[in-house]
Amino acid sequence: MTIKKRIVSGMRPTGALHLGNYHGALKNWIDMQDSFDCFFFIADWHALTSDYEDTSHIKEYIRKMMIDWLGAGLSPDKSTLFIQSHIKYHAELFLLLSMITPVPWLERNPTYKEQIAELKNKDLSTFGFLGYPILQAADIIIYKAEGVPVGVDQSAHIEITREIARRFNYFYGHVFPEPETILTESAKILGTDRRKMSKSYDNAIFLSDTPDAIRKKVATMITDPQRKKRSDAGDPDVCNVFSFHKIYSTKDMVDEINQDCRKAAIGCVECKQKMAESLISFLKPIREKTQYYQQNPDTVDDIIAKGNEKASTEASKTMESVREALKI
Q: What is residue 181's three-state secondary structure?
């Protein structure tokens, strides 16, 4: 019997998931379930690092996220799905790792610098925000993960985790493997206004959107900005709607629209309508599974409880090794 390599990853609960979340991470997770021993968690403690002032929606967002995961295709039979804050061993390991992690390692974290600059409306001068890479390291190595699936822009995060694991092993003996970065590819999805898809920009299409909501949102999408009139030839290569067609429509439809747009044989309104129906068709099975879990809350509770139990068992074993290494 082949032993699968263990991977760990998580998402902060920010509400319903949109297409950017799906293609940015979730689809890769789903595709990896058959090849890896997967531990996927909802990172609710991480949500507090920047949004600590208002925690009123976190429980609601956790549930929405878990239901979206299940609807999209994460399977409790193939993956361990759990909630970070329900596994208190994460906090214990975070504390112990914070004792050995040099502050300059945290201050040079590129994401730390970027978010300090970008989120000027929030007070991020907290230990929790500075130290979140230590919590992230604890999240990963407590399950002795051999790999972490991330995009290339997040690879620096995993390097900090590797450095922390290496430093612990140097002081106390080998306890943790150094997790490898598993680079994943994702389709580039922009929002309806051609900016990055984000709930805060009000430009997102959600996995749980109804067909009517999808049609209304797609109708507002920006197309080729140079195409002023219906009779003008368009350039699909600069059109956000066409980029969606390439992901959600059939190859025949993509080829047809590519040709018709360039010779003004199809207008932007009709092009959007066709794409909306393709997207609705793609999301239909996800929406149906999501509705099932929404209507069966006990099933969701059972999945969370079993995932938490398995994660807790694994984390407990690791912490026994950690305490023994530290002689405490």
A: strand
